[in-house]
Specification:
single chain; alpha+beta; Rossmann fold; Elongation Factor Tu (Ef-tu), domain 3; Alpha-Beta Plaits; eight-stranded antiparallel beta sheet; elongated
Amino acid sequence: MWAMDQSRIRNLCIIAHIDHGKSTLTDRLLEYTGTVTQREMVEQVMDQMDLEREKGITIKAKAVRMLYRAQDGVEYELNLIDTPGHVDFTYEVSRALYACEGAILVVDATQGVEAQTLANLYLALEHNLTIVPVVNKIDLPSARPDDTAHELENLLDVPNEQIIRASAKEGTGTAQILEAIVSRIPPPRADPTLPLRALIFDSKYDSYKGVVAYVRAMDGELHKNEKLKLMSSGLEIEALEVGVFRPKMVASDMLGAGEVGYVATGLKNVRDIQVGDTITHVTNPASEPLPGFRPAKPMVFAGFYPVETNDYPLLRDALDKLKLSDASLAYVPETSAALGFGFRCGFLGLLHLEIVQERLEREYDLNLIATAPSVEYRVLKNDGDIITVDNPAEMPDAVEIAEIEEPWMNIQVFTPKEYIGPIMELVVARRGAYDKMEYLDEQRVMLSYVMPLSELIIDFYDQLKSRTRGYASLDYTFANYRVSNLVKLNVLVNEEPVDALSMIVHKDHAYPRGAALTKKLKEVIPSQMYPVPIQAAIGGHIIARETIRALRKDVLAKCYGGDISRKRKLLEKQKAGKKRMKRFGAVEIPQEAFMAVLKLGEGN
């Protein structure tokens, strides 16, 4: 297959907030250019996972090549990279943007500009991408296309007539978008004579071809059966197959400079091919890799345990298989006195955690208990050692600790101005510190704060949505590590510590958290034949206690009158029996108890 003349190649992506119509617009472009026939057409062609279709989000990046004959009669090659919109996948998005020269910015005419749209737009502008603004969903009765266009005009400093009004559902504006891509987005500036440098912007595992890397040839050309190497690890691979996406994989002999396609490597581990890495030739390597590469780093950690202990090998196999399609998932085996054998897993963020848990339960038919998410703390011990702790159960004793650092995030909340008060109240209750406030227009405001990640991951987003009736949107990025006055809160049930319920909290919040948790556990743990104390403790100091009252058998039912000593004797016998039972009895803790940690009220 011959390489297209570089001046007729356009590499682009679509930037949009969740549910603003990105996948539907992609469908229309594929239809209009004849890339997908009417017979093959299904809604959200690019979203192949059930979860992606159900949630209306893109989880994995994809690519597709379209051929479009423009009004000037010239045929162009359009390489569209479909990126995730959620903040958890920001790094993957940044690499996909680096592979493009332009971006279509899709904004819902009923919602206006949202947090993640703006976050990804700033990323695109940092990479000097040409932006084609599109106001979508103009067919809806509640659409405000002129107001939204005015917002984009101010945001991008572009004339109003360059903003395209479209309805991806009805196909309105598709032709204008394609013409704008061809006329406004510049062709790639790649030199075919230089040594090969191909950027990996995603990868997936194929049982026949091994790991398939999705690449963009920045310089040089990539031919089939060539010996290649990865510049970050020095690992040598062979290009078993080279090809393009239309949208299924179609093999070809080569990828020309500036083109987007795939390389099948035959590797068995997705971990070997990392997003952002550079591929070059073994014989004539490039002198330096493309900038911006960093290995994926988990931010949120949680324990996954099978409800049925016998399912542990199945959970291990399921995680191994899932890892083949998700290189950013990290996990190590761990044991818990309360929950048995399981795995400590690391995720990019909360959405990533939710997706992995749902995929394990659906695709591998597992019944799981997930512990409360936690973050990675840096602990400086008195002997000068610095350790990282992502599991509260592994936190050293308070006497050994000099100081604890926790990750803080920069957060931006976009909201209608009438909700400023409730949002400020919520963030301050979660130890957030105010940074700045900007009015985007007469109605909408951007509030900036710094707050601890540990406060952000436990139902902050749900609280934000409920306080603003769903109108606020949130974006966050890592800021730094800061020293905080943190303590480990232990939970004891029947005077036995339950490691899976322990958490790390700020000292000022320890009492309300402990009191709320013991109260909640009292509701969900079933009564026994003896009283069960539930205690929250910091070190050896009990800070809150609730008692589950015993189920009581009426041993005096048989005594009709008679001497009081007879009744006392029966009661003493019952008391002794309960005491013995309490010593040997094991309290079964239901799954709801572990979920209770996630659902502590917002006031805590």
